[in-house]
TrEMBL record:
Its EC number is 2.7.7.7. GO terms for molecular function: damaged DNA binding. It comes from Sandaracinobacter neustonicus. This is DNA-directed DNA polymerase. Monomer.
Length: 506
C-alpha cells in the first residue's frame, strides 16, 4: 500500500522572507505581512503567526492591517520567489527523505515515502525529523502521512499538530470527518455545498454519487475519490538538472522479477559510466518504476562510501525487487543518483603493506535492510557518568581519538535506564548484603567498591552536589551486577540514598 506524506508550510512566504533577510529581518515577535495587488486594491497576501494572532487576516487591505496593528512590518509579496524556493526545498527533501518529491504550491510539499520509512526510524520519527529540521531553519511546518495524496493533504492542514500518522487503510475514515475545505475544491463550489447543508466530507460520501456529479460536475467526484484513495493521484517528482540519471522505456510492459533484475543491471552499467565520466561515485540510488496504470513506485538504497561498483550497486537494488508491485506491468525504469561524491581512480593494492579489509559492502547490505539508524558503532565520550560515556558513531566513521580509561571495571551490558532495587545494607560505605531485582531476591556473596562518581555540575544545577557510589556485586549463583546508591549515604543533598541496578557483567 502506498504511503504519501504531505508537508504543510502555513507561513512559508513570511518564513522565506525572514530567512532571506538574515540579520536584517525583523524580530520573531514583530508582526510581518506581505502585501500585493488584488485587483485594484493593495491587500495582505501572507501573514506570519504574530500578525495572525493580532487579528490580521489574508485578504484584508494593507491600510486596514496598518490601522489594526501599529508598527506592523510590511514587505512586498514575491510569489515567484516563493515558488522557486519551494522547488529548492523539494530538491533538498528528495536527497534527504524520499525519491519521489514534488512541490505542492503555494504552501506545501508532497512525497511518496513507500518503503522508505524504515530508513528514518518509522513514520512518526520520519515526520518528526522533517518538522524539527525545518523548525531549526526557521520554517514552520506540519506533516501528515496517509494512503493517498488527497488524504495526507487534508490531514496535514486540519489534523496534524504538528504531525499525524494515519494507519494503513484508515485514511478514508479519517478524511470523512474533515470539513469540505479539505477537498481542495474551488471556493465557489465549497460555498455552494455549504449552503445546501453539507459540512463534512462524510456528508458527501453518504449521498449517491451520480446526482452529485450531474449537479456539480466531475471535479467533486474526482476529489472525493482522491481523498478516499479510490483514485491514484500521480506525483510529478522534481528533478534537479545536475542529477545523473538513466532510463529505459519498454514497448511491452515487464513484470517478472528476473526481467526487472536484468534491466536493473543494464541501467547500473550505464549509470556507472556516467559517474565515471564526471569523476564521482554514488552515495544514494533511486530506482523509479512507472507502471502502465500511471502509478509510480520507487526503491531507494544508500551507500556508506561513494561507489560505482556495478556488481555491488546491482545487488543492492535487486535485493529490493520483492518490494516492487508491478501490477499490470512496468513501462519505464529510471535509475538516478541524487547524492554523489567525488571519487578518484582506484589504486593498486600495495605489495608490502597488508590489505585493509573493505567492510563498506557489508555495511551497505545491512544498512539497507535494517535502516541506517539501526547500524552504528559504540564510541567512548569524555564523561564520568556511565550513561553519558558512550555514544553512537557511523560504522565507517573514523575513530574519535578517545578511549575508555579508568581502573574500575565496566559491565558488558548497561541498562537503558537504571532500575530501582530493594536492598539491605549498612550505611554509609558498605555494599548491600542482599537485594531484590524484578521480584527475585539475591544474596550478595562478594562485593567490590565503592567507586564514587560525581555529577556534572556544568550541565545543570541539580548535579552540583549529586554523587553515586557504585559497587560490583556477585550473588550466590555467580552472577555479577553493577549497582549504585544515589548519594553519599549521609547528606540528603547528595541524592535520594535509594539503590539502583545499572548494568550486568558477562
Amino acid at each position: 500500500m502506498s504511503r504519501v506524506v504531505s508537508l504543510y508550510l502555513p507561513t512559508w512566504p513570511t518564513d522565506r522572507v525572514r530567512r532571506a533577510d538574515g540579520d536584517a529581518a525583523p524580530p520573531p515577535d514583530a508582526p510581518l505581512v506581505l502585501v500585493g495587488h488584488d485587483g485594484r486594491r493593495r491587500a495582505v497576501l501572507a501573514a506570519d503567526h504574530a500578525a495572525c494572532a493580532a487579528g490580521i487576516r489574508v485578504g484584508m487591505t494593507a491600510t486596514q492591517a496598518q490601522v489594526l496593528v501599529p508598527g506592523l512590518v510590511l514587505n512586498d509579496a514575491q510569489p515567484e520567489g516563493d515558488r522557486d524556493a519551494l522547488e529548492r526545498l523539494a530538491v533538498w527533501m528528495l536527497r534527504r527523505y524520499a525519491p519521489i518529491v514534488a512541490a505542492d504550491p503555494p504552501d506545501g510539499l508532497v512525497m511518496d515515502t513507500t518503503g522508505a520509512d524504515h530508513l528514518h526510524g518509522g513514520d512518526a520519527a520520519m515526520l518528526a525529523g522533517m518538522v524539527e529540521r525545518l523548525a531549526e531553519a526557521g520554517v514552520s511546518a506540519r506533516a501528515a502521512i496517509a494512503d493517498s495524496w488527497g488524504a495526507a493533504h487534508a490531514l496535514a492542514r486540519h489534523v496534524a499538530c504538528p504531525i499525524h500518522v494515519s494507519s494503513p487503510g484508515e485514511s478514508a475514515r479519517e478524511a470523512a470527518a474533515l470539513p469540505l475545505v479539505a477537498l481542495r475544491l474551488p471556493a465557489a463550489l465549497t460555498t455552494t455545498l455549504g449552503t445546501l447543508g453539507f459540512e463534512r466530507i462524510g456528508d458527501l460520501l453518504a449521498k449517491p454519487r451520480a446526482p452529485l456529479i450531474l449537479r456539480f460536475g466531475p471535479e467533486l467526484d474526482r476529489r472525493l475519490d482522491q481523498a478516499t484513495g479510490r483514485m491514484s493521484e500521480p506525483i510529478n517528482p522534481v528533478r534537479p538538472p545536475e542529477m545523473i540519471e538513466v532510463r529505459r522505456a519498454f514497448a511491452e510492459p515487464i513484470a517478472a522479477p528476473e526481467t526487472i533484475a536484468r534491466y536493473i543491471g543494464k541501467l547500473v552499467v550505464r549509470l556507472c559510466e556516467a559517474l565515471e565520466t564526471k569523476g564521482t561515485g554514488a552515495r544514494r540510488l533511486d530506482l523509479i518504476c512507472a507502471r502502465v496504470d500511471n502509478h509510480v513506485q520507487a526503491v531507494r538504497v544508500g551507500l556508506a562510501r561513494p561507489s560505482r561498483d556495478v556488481r555491488r550497486l546491482t545487488r543492492l537494488l535487486c535485493d529490493k525487487i520483492e518490494t516492487i508491485e508491478p501490477g499490470f506491468g512496468i513501462d519505464m525504469l529510471t535509475l538516478a543518483a541524487p547524492i554523489v561524491a567525488p571519487m578518484g581512480p582506484g589504486q593498486t593494492v600495495s605489495l608490502i603493506d597488508p590489505a585493509t579489509p573493505d567492510l563498506s559492502g557489508l555495511v551497505d547490505l545491512l544498512a539497507n535492510r535494517v535502516g541506517a539508524h539501526g547500524l552504528y558503532r559504540a564510541t567512548p565520550l569524555q564523561s564520568d557518568v556511565p550513561e553519558r560515556a558512550v555514544g553512537r558513531l557511523a560504522p565507517l566513521a573514523p575513530a574519535c581519538g578517545t578511549d575508555w580509561t579508568g581502573r574500575w571495571p565496566r559491565p558488558s551490558r548497561l541498562l537503558t535506564s537504571p532500575e530501582m532495587i530493594q536492598t539491605v545494607a549498612l550505611l554509609p560505605d558498605h555494599p548491600p548484603v542482599a537485594f531484590t531485582w524484578r521480584g527475585v531476591r539475591r544474596r550478595v556473596a562478594r562485593a567490590d567498591g565503592p567507586e564514587r562518581v560525581f555529577g556534572e555540575w556544568w550541565r545543570r544545577d541539580a548535579e552540583l552536589e549529586a554523587v553515586r557510589d557504585y559497587f560490583v556485586v556477585e550473588d550466590d549463583a555467580g552472577e555479577r551486577f553493577w549497582i549504585y546508591r544515589a548519594g553519599d549515604g549521609e547528606d540528603p543533598a547528595t541524592g535520594s540514598h535509594r539503590w539502583f541496578l545499572h548494568g550486568l557483567f558477562a
